[in-house]
């Protein structure tokens, strides 16, 4: 049986500038009331990277024996819950502003922790962010 290849990459990254941006966004009056954290900035950076390199947002179609380029990004966020690891996703994350993305991330995490994530919320992800806790 065919199994899709998976790629795992571990790198050490200097996040000094990222954390400075997080601090600046927290002070920005246009971001008042928005939960700004490193995950938000990393998620937005990933969405920008995918826009610049759309070939990474693709999947293998076994039935047609072809690579299918996705023209949307459903951003999966791996979330540890009392019931185990789940990966709900933010539909059409590429269309969201930074405040909208922050709101969607907050809802996703709250719903996951409360054990209320629907099967539909976990279907159709195109790319996933996970925190390995390192």
Structure write-up:
This protein is 32% helix and 16% strand. Strand 4 (79-81) and strand 5 form a beta hairpin. It has helices spanning 16-27, 38-52, 98-113; strands spanning 58-61, 66-69, 75-77, 79-81, 84-86, 89-90, 127-129. The protein has a three-stranded mixed beta sheet with strand order 6-3-7, with helices on one face. Strands 1-2 form a two-stranded antiparallel sheet. Strands 4-5 form a two-stranded antiparallel sheet. It is built from three helices and seven strands, in the order ααββββββαβ. The protein starts with 15 loop residues before the first helix and ends in a 5-residue tail after the last strand. Helix 2 (38-52) crosses helix 3. With 134 residues, the chain is of the alpha+beta class. The chain has one domain (16-129): Chloramphenicol Acetyltransferase, CATH 3.30.559.10.
Strand residues, percent: 15-25%
CATH superfamily: Chloramphenicol acetyltransferase-like domain
- General form: globular
* CATH fold group: Chloramphenicol Acetyltransferase
Mean pLDDT across all residues, rounded?
91
CATH architecture: 2-Layer Sandwich
Give the total of beta strands. Answer: 7
Distance between the termini: 34 Å
């Amino acid at each position: 049986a065919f199994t899709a290849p998976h790629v795992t990459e571990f790198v050490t990254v200097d996040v000094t500038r990222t954390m400075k941006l997080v601090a600046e966004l927290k002070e920005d009056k246009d971001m008042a009331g928005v939960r700004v954290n490193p995950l938000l900035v990393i998620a937005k950076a990933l969405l920008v990277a995918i826009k610049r390199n759309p070939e990474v947002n693709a999947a293998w179609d076994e039935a047609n024996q072809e690579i299918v380029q996705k023209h949307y990004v459903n951003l999966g966020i791996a979330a540890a819950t009392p019931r185990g690891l789940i990966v709900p996703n933010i539909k059409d994350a590429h269309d969201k502003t930074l405040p909208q993305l922050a709101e969607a991330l907050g809802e996703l995490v709250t719903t996951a922790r409360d054990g209320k994530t629907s099967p539909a919320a976990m279907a159709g992800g195109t790319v996933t962010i996970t925190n390995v806790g390192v």
